[in-house]
Amino acid sequence: xxxxxxxxxxxxxxxxxxxxxxxxxxxxxxxxxxxxxxxxxxxxxxxxxxxxxxxxxxxxxxxxxxxxxxxxxxxxxxxxxxxxxxxxxxxxxxxx
Length: 96
Prior knowledge:
- This protein has a domain at 19-84.
- The chain has helices spanning 4-13, 15-28, 33-36, 65-84, and strands at 39-44, 57-62.
- The protein has a two-stranded antiparallel ribbon with strand order 1-2.
- By secondary structure, the chain is an alpha+beta fold.
- The chain has 4 helices and 2 strands.
- The chain is extended and about 50 Å long.
């Protein structure tokens, strides 16, 4: 059985470790290796397509959600720096 109170306790106990990992990554300029690992899958584009035709498939890489949080932190810092220093706009559409 799922214990909500225990989950809430565990959720908050892990934040100092996660924040430490983020801070270390930002100060060192490197990303932990386990943030870079992805689960690659091949999926049919639509359920009604013929599975025997390779062009009907697309590749999907599932990254750990924690790496997406770090990505968003870095993006926000870049945008803040850009605005604070009146730098020319640059495109980060892949992150947004």
